[in-house]
Structure formats: structure tokens, C-alpha cells
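Internal tracking record. Fields below are filled automatically when a chain is submitted to the structure queue. Please do not edit lines marked as system-generated. If the sequence contains nonstandard residues, flag them in the REMARKS field before resubmitting.
Queue: standard
Priority: normal
Entity type: single polypeptide chain
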Amino acid sequence: MNSSNLVQDGQNNKLIYKFPNSVVFKNNSIAVSSVSMYYSWFNISQALGNNTFTYSWTNGTTVTTYQVVIPDGLYEIAQLNSFFQFVMISNDTYLIDSSGKYVYYAELILNPTRYAVQLNTYLFPTAANLPSGFTAPSPSFVFPTQSFNPIVTFPANFNNIVGYNAGFASNNNVNNAFTPTPSPYVTKGDDGTLSYLSTKAPNVQPNSSVYFSLSNINNPYSQPSSIIYSLVAQGVVGELIRERPPQFMWNKMIDGAYNQLTLTFLGTDLQPIVIQDPSMTILLTIKEGDEYGGKN
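SYSTEM-GENERATED OUTPUT FOLLOWS
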């Protein structure tokens, strides 16, 4: 099967192979022989329900909550942080230092040592305490009457990407008065910086495995019974995945006459997964005889 077998619905997740004539199968088994396809399925999307989080900002005495809506795509944590900064620029929630560089007061970074995503929020000054040479992003900018740290909130589904509990919210630290409870997951610096760590393993790619679901299969050991293979994405996004199983994993075909086979790619939730790149080749091998022996 290759791109010519794809159902043309824009999702690139279903291939149909039509036999030249109807074929009668009896005591046959089938296995995946080789796979060649690109790592091109999104980890963040509206369909997955994990594409938003929020942050709150104080203008004068008014607290405004901004929603960060992430466009569907394949993201690493560094790219998420870059988009977060883009949103903060759009909302005028940053400062400009004496060198003309933008200064952001919240960030997401990787902490490989702790196998975590680290959220840092920084103490935003009042106009009276503005660092030397710093300026506001626009003439209409309103400084807060009290210093504060932005409140960053991770809702359900997005929280799994960064490894926090659903509904997590960082502290506002008004006037640098917040004292965190001793914990390995939150620390506070003398300058008012608050650093948070994931409390569970981040799941940056919810669909790290793709299941192959094939019609006309009766696999008594899987649920659903049509699953014949699991492909684990390796390398960086956009790379070609080449896989050849070291041995065939035979799956019993349901006896009957068929004129086609349908292969569907499923995510870890067992729902069809949208694949961006249609370039793929899937080789299947059919064996005649019982599932333990017989001829190929």
C-alpha cells in the first residue's frame, strides 16, 4: 500500500487496497513486513483538545486573562515557548530593555536533569521600580500599582503536554510577598522569580505510537481485534520512519471472500489520527496455512 491507496479526505489515515478480483481467504494470516512514512502527525491541535492555556496580567489594578490558542502543529517545548512569547508581544505584556531587547516575564523551558518542563515567572515592576533603561512596549501601556508575577494556568489536556496537574495555576506573588511551601516542584528566588517543575512525566507527543487497524482481522489478543501492529515514532518530527520488523507478527484473517483490505492508522485513544504527509509505503505479507506453520 502507498499514497495511491489513500482515501482522499485530507486526513491521510486510511488506505484501501483493492484486489484485481475477489479473493477467498481460508486459514490465512497477515503481517506487516515493512513501513516507510514520515513522522508528520500533530501533537497539539484543536481536535486533540490540548491547544490552549492562559496567563493573567495586571494593568494598573485590573487583572486581564489572556488565552493562548496554539495553531495545530508539531511542537517541542522550545517552540511552544516561542509562540507564547509571540502572544505576549501581541498583547503588549512585556518590556524593552536598554539594548532594545524584549523582556518576557514568563517562560517554558526544558529541565532535562529533572525530566520535566520548567515554568518560570518573573516579578514585573511598577513604574517606580522600573530597571534603568527599560521602557514600555507602547504609549498606552499601564504599569501595575503593585509588582506581580504573571499567573499561568494549564487546563485539562494541555497539562499533560507539560506534565502538570489539570488546572495548575502559578502564584501572582503580589509585592513579592508569596512564600512557597517547601517542595521539590516550586522554588522562589530572592528577586521574586518563581520556578515550577512538572509533577509528572511530560507527554509532549500524546500519539507517540500509531496503531495499524486492518479490516478482515480477528486478533483475540487486542482491543479492538483489528489491531495488527504498533509503530513507535522515533527521531525528530518530519523525519522519515523506516521500519522492518525482525520477524513477522502473524494475525489470523477472518475466512471469507474479499475484494479489498482497509488499513487505518489510529492514535493512542484508538481514534483515527490525522497524518500530514501522504508519502508512505506499507508492505503486508499474507501467509497461507494455519497461524503456526504452512507455506508463505
